[in-house]
Amino acid sequence: MRFSTALRDSARRRLERLGRADVVVGIPSYNTAATVGHVLQTAVQGLQTYFPDRLGLVMVADGGSVDDTREAAEEVRVDSYNVETLVTIYRGLPGKGTAVRAILEAAEFLHAQACVLLDADLRSVTPEWIRNLAEPILEGGYDFVAPYYRRYKYDGTITNTIVYNLTRALYGLRIRQPIGGDVALSRAAVLRYLDHDVWETDVARFGVDVWLTVTAIVHGFRIVQARLGTKVHDVKDPAEHLGPMFRQVVGTVFTLMQTHEAFWKSVRGSQAVEILGEEPPGRLEPFRISMEPLLEAFRLGVLYFGPLWQNILDPATYHTLLDLAYRPAEEFRLPVETWVRCVYDFAVTYKNWPRHKGKLLDIMLPLYHARVASLVNELADVADAEVEAFFDAQAAVFEALKDELVRKWDDPREAQKWKAAVPSGPRRAVVIVGAGPTARTVARYLSAARPVWLVDRNRENCEEAARAGLPVVEGDALRREVLEAAHAGEANLLIAMTPNDEVNVLVARLARTDLGVPTVFVLEAGDRPDELHATLQGAQARGFRLGAFEVQDWDWWVEHRRATETVVVIPEATTPEQFFQSLPDRPFLPVAVLRGSECYFFYEVDRLEPSDRVVGLTVVEP
Predict the structure, then answer these.
(1) Consecutive H or E run containing 567
(2) In whole angstroms, what is the distance from residue 278 CA to residue 234 CA?
(3) Residues 382-402: pLDDT tens digits?
(4) For residue 14, how far is the Cα from the chain centroid?
(5) Quick one: which H or E segment has residue 39?
């Protein structure tokens, strides 16, 4: 469904009553009950203190939080003659970008001269942030004010490893925080942004911040940076929490490279961007990043995606990565030149990738984990005052190697390489009915090599799948139109793995008879296997079990992190049955078989060949 507006009718009626505002401060929120009240109250104080003669609106655009975010925001009492507050749920795709769209629409409706955006999880925001962000718009004639923070050296890893470097090298401006969520926009900028039809893409999610920045550059906005002092927010572990953000941000960056290639290909070097404002007081709060999850993710990536990396990367880059996989944690260092070439090669491949582009980002994610692990070692003894010089030197390498990027970008052999890799068969997609934690795990593995769609009636499962970057259709899989929306008509494999045998069998019959899906697997979830087998034969489907356990058990283990990813390399030819007999007593769920650059659902394979890699889940603590 496409939405013509992100504003609900109730919010629009409230805006009609307000009539106008000079400054709109917008706060996109989702499950930020602990901090949103503080951010809202601080924004109100900033408007009252520094812009007492201007009408202001502080608006919280919420994504349907399941905690008390909206209640916490509504509890903030505002006793002001010039500042109003509005708390609303936006309409549209779930994500920060849609919240920003709602805020921009409100600013446009109220004819605001300045629109300020603040993240809802901020702990260090002060009233001076409002002054430093809005003043250049209201009094300096600027169109786009980017934040300039002081951040702890391990904070902002996506910015420091990829986005700052690419923005600077591609577009020629040293905007230090191109995905900083705290920005200010002029009325002209608001109108220009709303004129773009991007709200059904990753811009509607975490991609919005870099889209705002790049759009400002290529459209010639007057740009400045504002000193905001230290940024302290909810810390997210790169190995555990930043996967969806990585996919959406980097995917947007790579997509924008295609949109604006005529602009960036001729840019060489970079220029400093002026920084305005008095820096608010504050101190950095150190924290640690755990190395082991990062290294484990990288080493699993070598096993899962090694053959694909070999096709994407230059031989020297690929062999450097292989060598790193066996280094102990204290010696782990990914050379910056190798990292830059990884990023550039993936950008070129993203342009030419014939399959679901989001899956290419899954293949790249372990390399990001490797770069962050390397930074932990490289920055261990670097003083806070010297950190910026370190990242400046890294960005300079991105600039120095840009000619290599342009040469590959224009090389027709790169496009031909992946065009030749497209399978000739008309059906290749996989549809998985059920989007619980176990089904999402299966989807994540299979999607490395095949387009995968999930179907579920449960909205929470669908939202979790969407946040993980997995295509999902919310609806009843017993309805043909729902399966068609999930591309079942293009699928060569459907896996029905709900906890209900009857539903699974009915879905299998619909997929086989009405949609012609060649291969259908049904999870045997009940306690009447003989009766089920007879029914499956009639439906022309094959059954499978999750070992001695039910899908609900595996869902619980996955959700509570009691199951770890495991890779078993097959030493000699065997059958799946013999493989099962060789397993230890600990519960193991085989999910996929990696064979070269191909990936198969485990139960699709009749025979396991030497060097096949069986990937799955092992229960650490049943």
Answers:
(1) strand 563-569
(2) 25
(3) 998 899 999 999 999 999 999
(4) 33
(5) helix 36-50
